[in-house]
Amino acid sequence: MCVEEYKREFEKLLIRCDIQDSKDQTIVRYLGGVDPKYANVIKFQQYSMFDVVCVLAQKIEQQKIAKPFKHDFL
After folding, report:
1. Contact predicate 60/2, CB 8 Å
2. pTM for this structure?
3. I need a labelling partner for 26 at 20 to 30 A (CA). Which of 14, 38, 46, 64 fits?
4. What is the pLDDT of residues 27-52, one digit of tens each?
C-alpha cells in the first residue's frame, strides 16, 4: 500500500473508531503502521504535526521510487 493510501485508510479508521488521541499519540499510531523504512527516517526529522509527518512519508516514498534504498534501515 502506498503512503497516500495508508494515510486515507488511517484517517478513515480514526473517524470510524472515534479515536480522539492527542496529536503526539496520533503520530505514534501512524508511524507504527507506515512502512518501517519510512518510519525510521521520519523519526530523525523534526515534526510537530500529523500532516507534516504524512508529507515527510510521501517525500521519502517518492525518493525511494526515484532511487531505491541501497540498504534497509531495519
Report:
1. no
2. 0.79
3. 64
4. 999 999 999 999 999 999 888 899 99
Retrieve residue 74's grid coordinates. Answer: 531495519
Q: What is the largest CA-CA distance in the chain?
A: 40
With cut-offs at 50, 70 and 90, classify the pLDDT of residue 67. Answer: confident
| 74 found inside a domain | no
User: 26: number of CA atoms within 13 Å, CB side?
Assistant: 21
* Total domains in the fold of the chain: 1
CA distance 16 to 37: 27
